[in-house]
Amino acid sequence: MHRGRSSAHWKQRAEMTAQEARLCGLLLREHFGEVVERVGTHLLRSGAQNLRTVANESGTPLDLVKKSLCVLMKHGACSFRVGRKGPGSPVEYRASCERILRILRYPRYIYTAKTLYGDTGELVVEELLQRGHMTMSSIVKTVADRLTHNMEEGRRVEYSEVVSTFSKLVETHFLQRCPPVSEAAPAASTAPMIPGSGPSGSGPAASAPPTAESFPDCYTVPHVSLVGWGKRRRSGEDAAEEQGVGKKAKTDEQTHGDEGVYWQVNFERFHLHFRDQTIITAVASKLDQTSSEIVRTMLRMSEVTTPPSASCTQALSANEIFRSLPANYSISRPILDQYLTLLVDDPMEFVGKSGDSGGGMYVVNLHRALTNLARATLESVVQERFGSRSARIFRLLLRKHHLEQKQVEDFAMIPAKEAKDMLYTLLSENLVLLQEIPKTPDHAPSRTFYLYTVNQLATARMLLQHCYKTVANLIDRRLFETKESKRLLEKSQRIEAIMASLQASGAEPEQLTEVEEMITAPEKQQLESLRHHINKLDSAENQVDETIFLLKAYVNSTAKVTQ
Amino acid sequence: MADVKVKKESDPVDVAAIETRIKELCQQFPHGITDQVIQNDMPHLEAQQRAMVINKLLSLGQLDLLKNSSGLLYRMKDAQSASKMKGSDNQEKLVYQIIEDAGNKGIWTRDIRFKCNLPLTEVNKILKNLESKKLIKAVKSVAASKKKVYMLYNVQPDRSVTGGAWYSDQDFESEFVEVLNQQCFKFLQSKAEVARDSKQSPMIQRNSSLATSHEVWKYICELGISKVDLSMEDIETILSTLIYDGKVEMTIIAAKEGTVGSVDGQMKLYRGVNPVIQPTGLVKTPCGLCPVFDECHEGGEISPSRCIYMTEWLNF
Questions:
Q1: What is the pTM of this model?
Q2: With an 8 Å Cβ cutoff, is A544 touching chain B?
């Protein structure tokens, strides 16, 4: 049985939890509106359904359902396949919770693209995330226009610059072609328009939609004739049109030879990059900068040779590592050996030694690093929430696995009464478990061992759900704060629009100040504090997403290792 | 008739001589002598007479009566302890014996009762008596604070009873442990910093940041913050708590016997370490620390819109 990285939609998934469903709903509403939210959450909760059922059960008119499904599919959040009852039965649609949750991480993807490929890379990824699927030519034109608009007068961006950044993104696998969809066998009457269908294969519908990577052209940049440069939008245009540019598809009459070839963001590649970054940061923080550079070099060298689900990278010899170190890190060979030995000896086990040839063969222990980082995350949560002495007990139990109450008191050197209190608090929060081992068959309490223990995987899963709930809470609060000040926000927007038009038509300074003063000082303060609140909530969402990423990576990695 | 007369006329001098002889024999055989030995030595002594003399010596408290697998043993009693027991009666002596046997772990009243089969009131009276004579003392056990164990007056209580260096009068000295904890950590941390600043090769840096448990013990002793004597093992338990705090790492290396600080051919080395991650994102939000997290939902009494923790946090 082929156990490749099949699409997440049709794998036998664990049930989606209530917290995940709530968060998906909030994300869908913010990004696509209420109708898509209604259809999307209905599909999430009910599993695979055909078009009519979705329309009836969610109480949405058929044409709106069709449009919503289009939107979801364009973003890869919904897939379809032949109905269960065999060919001839209506097509069934299924929504992907995991894909929708990724919306939370968009800022991180965009920021990463910016650090790697500059502003051009940032805009390419941003456009693709906004639209879901795009052809290369439309991406290039849109991005060139946006870049040109932000530059000073007289400067502009050539298409070729954008094309070269785009190609780099594809070369490093951050972008990939959308998989061409095979024809759905049943009649087209119930199947909505499918964007992104390339040269369709004429075989029978596959049992699972093929992944993007199963196509050989996945990372091939098409030859297109794109000559030109970005066009600056003339100032003085309506503000509404400015906002609508991103959403409305520009009808472009020119064709460039890459019609039907659609591109999407390769999330898995970004995730591998995030994982590597997390490990490198941890090494820098635990050891030092040079050690982290060595680990960065090792990860870079094994980027293409290591399969994504591996628990450690390919073995690299010390000679190879020495040759591949960045030029500005000139350390001598014996010193490199020392650093490698120290990395291997470190209890965090970031690096392992797998052989002695070539000056020593070294691997980066990906799974173990993730496990240790997840453990540090759990310890951090216990410490911040319950104090350092409870954290001591927690770490003690993680190390020694099973302990009786008396042993906990002795090892942790905490007085009996306080230790008991802390253990019971941790127990009530399900961070610590109690295991009974009876000495006699009658399980009498006086003759039973009661051992405290911590189950790292289960605790990580539980904290993951807490994270989802926290993010949903933060979003709820943000929407609430915005709603409370809705009137004030609208007023401030109106005034800004008036100011802009006055400035454009060359008004007197007194007129401008008069308009400005229409907002009173306390209102300004309220607006300022609202802005501050929204920013704080936004950045908190991103911070919690970092925790979500780490815990999810750990849970997935453990699942793969134990498969 | 004459024989009987002779017996009856055995004069007191004889008895004294027999006593002395038996005492000499006891001293010859410090582990104790049996009836057999006495009989071999003084074959003319009749069993009855022997028993009489022995009983007298026992009641005078000069002989100890012991039982072993082959029979009864008589042993010389310490002159000192013999004088102590003057004026005490047999029961007291018995109880005293039991307590003495318990050594430095002490013995509970109930156990004393089992061993000597005396009623509770008697035992209590005797114990009070002995205590007033300053022959025994009561020590509260740290394991069960209501339990009192008795031991001889001049015996040091065992660690398991008093709890060792960390307990003073049955109270766990948390502050003392905390202070030691911080001092040990500071010592290791400064050692690590010095090593880092020396800018030597990484291996030398790492090795010079290591400290043996012996070094830490010496440092703490020299600091003089402890009123009681701390052993190296005590310091090692403190260092273990630092490991559980995630601040310190330990390695064990083989060491030659006789190297300072080595125990059973091994030495424990400790090193201050940096945390591997910063506090995680979840705990930077009020929800991550919220005590009523589970009761919060939109539209309820506790909800994100009305959360006071969030309001405080936002206005910070």
A1: 0.77
A2: yes
